[in-house]
Amino acid sequence: MFRRRAATTPRVHHDMQDFPPRIATFFTGTDVAPTPDPDTRSPAAFLRWMLRQQWQVIAWSTVSCLLWLLPLTFGPYIFGRAVDDGILAGSTGALLAWAGVMLAVVLVGGVFGVVFHTLVVRSWLISLYGTTQMVTRKVAQMGHVLPRRSPTGEVLSVSSSDSDEFGALTEILARSIAQLVSYLTVAAIVLTMSWQLGVVVLVAAPVLVLAAMPLLRPLHRRQQVERSRNSELTSLATDIVAGLRILRGIGGEDTFGRNYATQSQHARKAGVSSGIWQAAVEAVGVLFSGVFLVTLVWLGTRQVQAGELTVGQLVSFLGYGLFMVGPIRTFFELAQKATRALVSARKAIAIFEQRPPWRDPEDPQPLDGSREMVDDLSGFTAHPELLTVVVSAVPEQSAALADRLGRYLPPDTDPVGEDDGDGLKGRAARRARADRERRRARIAARDEEAATREWGVRLGGVDLSAASLADVRRQVLVSDTGSGLFAGTLQDAIDPHGTLTREQAEQALRVANAEDVYDALPEGWQGQLDERGRGLSGGQRQRVVLARALATDAPILVLVEPTSAVDAHTEARIAERVSELRRGRTTVVCTVSPLWLHHADRVVLLRDGQVVAEGDHADLLAHDAAYRDVVVRSMDEEVSS
């Protein structure tokens, strides 16, 4: 059987599970126990929300790191006591005792070093994969609306590079907290030996961090520019890969290649600029750490000469001076990674704060896919159990009709990017951000208004806005030229929900005339398809998409130019087989192909988005000049091509 058996999963206590992370944000009605959506009020609020999701792992990482630092925290003190009590005092027993203490501390540090690094990798992966899952769920929740509001490159960058920044933040946070505790412990130890040197050690880190603060603002700004440039580059690369076959056909590879090279140079320059400021921050850390160490050695030597310190205590101070370089550099690293995480968080909340425009009614009415479907805007009627072909001289008008029949918002808005203020400062940058937010709000408001008012398409007398969106999707399936394929097996492409028998899947493949795709794959149904079907020809990809649409056996099927990429003989076979398969079901095909028109039960002509003629193909061809002009022109274009 082609039908797949659902995998049985053991019952898991989700309260104890942290990896793989259980993410059920952006609730779509399919989860038993949804989790709260992220806090998108500000980048800082979003980061706090992310850290709270795995506070236990971060806490255990902090404790492990603290124990890992034991040799560095107490090692100089133990070594100094061994020098004073053992070597200088000539006591072998005291020397062995302190050596035993040092061995125990080192063993504890070694064991918990392994534990700490294991937990750090765990927390990093939780953040990385958790963010990727949230992006996936947001894409599933928003559907076709998301590309209207955010560029594809932004979404991909949040899922890849930004998620890595969030993982880096969890690691440096646990390490910084442990280093802070260790730093305060060392300060307490040195204060008991010399209050002057203790004060130097205690004050050094805050002074050094404050010295680098003026550099963080320009670093933050340049990292934002770098992030936006990389996002643009990702979007451009995605568009090139998606349209590579077309680009080759029209000879546009060189043009797009030059555009990509230009954008990559912009990204490189932004990266160099960001790297210069990051190097400046690190240089300040190294410089001040060296000054601190030299100052500590000089003061300690003078106190030994004055008899205020023993040799062993001086050795301890020198060891602690070297140790304090670590916490100071860690605090600098925390400032840098927190800055990068804030930049990434700002990009992430631009995706996550968006809300789907669909609002299901409180008392949804059921839909009956066997009833008549009417579009008030155009005057179009899809009669039950008939194959209706919609003809228009402007393909966008028939595609817009298909969007309305499926209750999809029209893709007529360019997405609002996050790079409008790149390179700007002060008032100009604030004005660019304000303009971007106004445009984003205007798009969201329009989507909201369009999705909450009466839709204007009625199925069996029920407006689609009065039914739940899930019911609309069950009754009406729209397959247009933008429908794509995911990477996976041919079985997944035809039967993504695993509900078909082998016979049903083979029938869908045969009707779509896509048997050659099956034959070309060595493993048949388990043969692998590349993302977007890149290994297939344009016609093969289109026929696999058609087979997937036919396999759903939807009560109402709307096809937009389903055979535009196949030859005439193949198109004739597909049109004949589809008309036979869909007999008794409502089918709407938007095309001007005469091969489909010959099989139509009813033909509708659109002009300026309005129905101006309808009837039988032969009658319209004989008596309607406008219809004849559109169809004959289409036939002439096919012959010339």
From TrEMBL:
GO terms for molecular function: ATP binding. It holds the Pfam family ABC_tran. The keyword ATP-binding applies. The keyword Nucleotide-binding applies. InterPro entries: ABC1_TM_dom, ABC1_TM_sf, ABC_transporter-like_ATP-bd, ABC_transporter-like_CS, P-loop_NTPase, Type_1_exporter. Residues 59-340 form the ABC transmembrane type-1 domain. Keywords: ATP-binding, Membrane, Nucleotide-binding, Transmembrane, Transmembrane helix. Residues 359-633 form the ABC transporter domain. Residues 406-436 are annotated as: Disordered. The chain crosses the membrane at residues 57-79, 95-120, 276-299, 311-332. It is a multi-pass membrane protein. It is found in: Cell membrane. This is ABC transporter ATP-binding protein.
